[in-house]
Amino acid sequence: MRALILVGSGRYADPWHPLARTGDRLGEVIADAGFEVRVRDDVDDALAELDGLDLLVVNAADPWRNGEAAVGAPERSIAGLDAALERGMGVLGVHAAISSLRDYPRWAETIGGVWLPELSMHPPIGQAHVRIVADHPVTDDVADFEVFDELYSRLQRIGDASVLAEHEHDGRRHPLLWAREIGGCRVVYDALGHDERSYDAPEHRRLVRNAARWAVRD
Questions:
Q1: How many CB atoms lie within 10 A of CB 8?
Q2: Nearest 5°: phi and psi at 15?
Q3: Are the C-beta atoms of 181 and 131 separated by less than 8 Å?
Q4: ThuA-like domain: from which residue to which, for each copy (predicted)?
Q5: Which residues have a Cβ under 8 Å from the Cβ of 160 and sit 6 or more positions away?
Q6: 83-121: per-residue pLDDT in tens?
Q7: Domain extents for the chain?
Q8: Cα–Cα distances in angstroms (integers) from residue 156 to residues 24, 48, 67, 174, 189, in the given order
Q9: How far, in whole angstroms, is CA 104 from its chain's centroid?
């Protein structure tokens, strides 16, 4: 099984997320799940070259953060992602991926949500409690756990998905992990993973391994 991890650089990077370091940790975890892993930071070029790929992992940030929407993505890259989704490639979006790939028309619908600057937020990064709320292959053998992370809240969800984990903030429950099938694709969004400390939690590593396998129907 072949997995590609997209690590944000250039317009897909930001000052807050150490994407290269989290990309390395993701690579280790997904390799442990039985994948042949490649990591690339040339996001748009890589999305034009997805033939034969089993799993796409997006670990990239918001390309419009500095008002750069006019830059756009190459048509060949948009077509490459669309073709891979049509053939049923598995997808795992991690943390800031929910605000990424904004120039790709199918991305938000595929991942099942979007970060809205006027609504979405997170409490200060720190030790936090993650609650598992559903039985699913992605949560197999994972119980509630503690993790050092930045917990996204008030995300705008799109379409149907099975919420698998959540946290509580300001008296409300906020999804942190969901899985969905859209078209022929299996998709998981994992809102954890702000920095490499998130992957020190063995439960989070297991969730990522399970998510990768489920997304490719392994």
A1: 25
A2: -75, -10
A3: no
A4: 23-215
A5: 180
A6: 999 999 999 999 999 999 999 999 999 999 999 988 999
A7: 2-215
A8: 28, 28, 21, 11, 13
A9: 15
